[in-house]
């Protein structure tokens, strides 16, 4: 298990990726002085007796209602319980762990007014593997991810449910088993815990990391398909891409050249090939995949900033003892990033499906119809290509930008919202769809290369094909295809197929 020490405000993308993949983070202790001073500032603000939003007033449309000092603890508990109104399936454990780490880092910036003990409990829950049940629906991305984060805060006060060691338990019982005590929230603490963009950001980061795996694997399967169709590597010539200048295009072209370097299949038809140009699904891989890579990197930049920022409200400035109300909880940057990732994932899968369609068409590929040695008696890859088309169409429907939608909430106090939460949450399903398409391409491309025996492809691509063949034998006669597709999908989504090529593939950072 990866041990990660996080410096609030300076957590790297690789650290967030490691947390998503199973790492357990801890905070740099140096941040605690700022946390203590922020909590002390809240006490000094309260002592002045002035109305301050979120500390001694109601919330949202009820901000004008002043709360007596004797009711401040009840106020914070009530906002947590009342806002825990999510619905739908429980969020996946890796996303919840990432969300908790994001909230921990944000609170540790020392601008949220929470006490050190509250932050300590959140850190201990992460360290001891407690996973709150967070319903995945209910946030519109402003004022932050209120419902999902409220479900997290609810478990910290001993309500709701937590998964511990694979067992779903009442939160109070899970905390007790882990040797932890539930909180009594202090002034501002409930609001600090439930206000922010950490649910949207966690889902968007998860989508980003899955998209990175998809892009790398699709470069490997794209190179395999080019080999299976005896396509040309001339379109990957660096001179072409240097003239246009896009970094992602240049890098993906270089990766494709390296993947195909030393191929005997390619060498066998350098002379005498009558085709002048290949279909776009082969020829334009650097242009499409490179554009996706550039878009993913832009999303990564936005999400890295957001992940290190403070997005609750109001914010506490201890040097002047001010509580300033603003709108950092509005998740528009996350929504835009999620929309970019959705488009990238959709296009990666779309291009992969077009290569499958090309391979099964003998007029385009020069291979037996539907990649079966006995067309007619056998259907071969006919219906897997249909499945790939279905998955791509589903992703097209989901790729419509979420950020252009808005619906007023909280009696029009929150009259423009980002829709970042569901914009980010859809990315996991889209990634699985695209992964299924790439898996079918992997099987089809491996089958196509089989027809070129005894010629072999490059060392990198043969290593990838060997991994496929460890799990899925060549298709000589029709058989139950679903298990083959499931095995191939596991290789794609785990990143094992990309890793098998043993080639430096473009990364998001």
From TrEMBL:
Reaction catalyzed: L-histidine = trans-urocanate + NH4(+)
Subcellular location: Cytoplasm
Modified residues annotated as 2,3-didehydroalanine (Ser) in this record: 143
One Gene Ontology molecular-function label: histidine ammonia-lyase activity
Post-translational modification: Contains an active site 4-methylidene-imidazol-5-one (MIO), which is formed autocatalytically by cyclization and dehydration of residues Ala-Ser-Gly.
Domain of life of the organism encoding this protein: Bacteria
Gene Ontology process terms (BP): L-histidine catabolic process
Gene Ontology CC annotations of this record: cytoplasm
InterPro entries xref list: Aromatic_Lyase (IPR001106), Fumarase/histidase_N (IPR024083), HutH (IPR005921), L-Aspartase-like (IPR008948), Phe/His_NH3-lyase_AS (IPR022313)
Main EC class the enzyme belongs to: lyase
Keyword annotations: Cytoplasm, Histidine metabolism, Lyase
Subcellular location, principal: cytoplasm
Pathway(s) it belongs to: Amino-acid degradation; L-histidine degradation into L-glutamate; N-formimidoyl-L-glutamate from L-histidine: step 1/3
EC number: 4.3.1.3
Pfam families in alphabetical order: Lyase_aromatic
Covalent cross-link 5-imidazolinone (Ala-Gly), where: 142-144
NCBIfam families the record matches: hutH, PRK09367.1
Similarity comment: Belongs to the PAL/histidase family.
UniProt cross-references to PANTHER family, sorted A to Z: HISTIDINE AMMONIA-LYASE
Entry protein name: Histidine ammonia-lyase
Organism: Croceicoccus pelagius
Organism lineage string: Bacteria, Pseudomonadati, Pseudomonadota, Alphaproteobacteria, Sphingomonadales
């Amino acid at each position: 298990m990866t041990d990660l020490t996080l410096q609030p405000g300076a957590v790297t993308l690789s650290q967030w990726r490691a947390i998503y993949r199973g790492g357990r983070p801890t905070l740099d202790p140096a941040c605690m002085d700022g946390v203590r001073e922020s909590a002390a500032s809240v006490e000094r603000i309260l002592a002045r007796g002035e109305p301050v939003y979120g500390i001694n007033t109601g919330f949202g449309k009820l901000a004008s209602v002043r709360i007596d000092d004797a009711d401040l603890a009840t106020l914070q508990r009530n906002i947590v319980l009342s806002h825990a109104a999510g619905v739908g399936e429980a969020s996946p454990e890796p996303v919840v762990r990432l969300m908790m780490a994001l909230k921990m880092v944000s609170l540790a910036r020392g601008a949220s007014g929470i006490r050190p003990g509250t932050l300590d409990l959140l850190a201990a829950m992460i360290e001891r593997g407690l996973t709150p049940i967070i319903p995945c629906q209910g946030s519109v991305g402003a004022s932050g991810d209120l419902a999902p984060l409220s479900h997290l805060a609810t478990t910290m006060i001993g309500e709701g449910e937590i998964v511990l060691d694979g067992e779903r338990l009442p939160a109070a019982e899970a905390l007790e088993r882990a040797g932890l005590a539930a909180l009594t929230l202090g002034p501002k603490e409930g609001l600090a815990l439930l206000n922010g963009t950490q649910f949207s950001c966690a889902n968007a980061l998860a989508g980003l990391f899955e998209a990175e795996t998809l892009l790398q694997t699709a470069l490997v399967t794209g190179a395999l398909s080019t080999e299976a169709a005896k396509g040309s590597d001339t379109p990957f010539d660096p001179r072409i891409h240097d003239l246009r200048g896009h970094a992602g295009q240049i890098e993906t072209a270089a990766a494709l050249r390296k993947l195909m370097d030393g191929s005997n299949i390619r060498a066998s038809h350098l002379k005498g090939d009558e085709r002048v140009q290949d279909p776009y699904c082969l020829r334009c891989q650097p242009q499409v995949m490179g554009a996706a890579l550039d878009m993913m990197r832009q999303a990564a930049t936005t999400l890295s900033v957001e992940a290190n920022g403070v997005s609750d409200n109001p914010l506490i400035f201890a040097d002047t003892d001010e509580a300033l109300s603003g709108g950092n909880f509005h998740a528009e940057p996350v929504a835009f990033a999620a929309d970019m990732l959705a488009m990238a994932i959709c296009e990666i899968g779309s291009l992969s499906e077009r290569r499958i369609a090309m391979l099964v068409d003998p007029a385009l590929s020069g291979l037996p119809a539907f990649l079966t040695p006995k067309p007619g008696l056998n259907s071969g890859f006919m219906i897997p290509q249909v499945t790939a088309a279905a998955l791509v169409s589903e992703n097209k429907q989901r790729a419509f930008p979420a950020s252009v939608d808005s619906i007023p909430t909280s009696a029009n106090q929150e009259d423009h919202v980002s829709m970042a939460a569901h914009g980010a949450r859809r990315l996991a399903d889209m990634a699985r769809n695209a992964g299924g398409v790439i898996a079918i391409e992997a099987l089809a491309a491996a089958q196509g290369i089989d027809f070129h025996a005894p010629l072999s492809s490059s060392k990198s691509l043969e290593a990838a094909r060997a991994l496929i063949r460890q799990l899925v034998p060549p298709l000589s006669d029709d058989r139950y295809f679903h298990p083959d597709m499931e095995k191939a999908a596991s290789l794609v989504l785990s990143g094992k197929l990309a890793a098998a090529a043993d080639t430096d593939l473009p990364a998001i950072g």
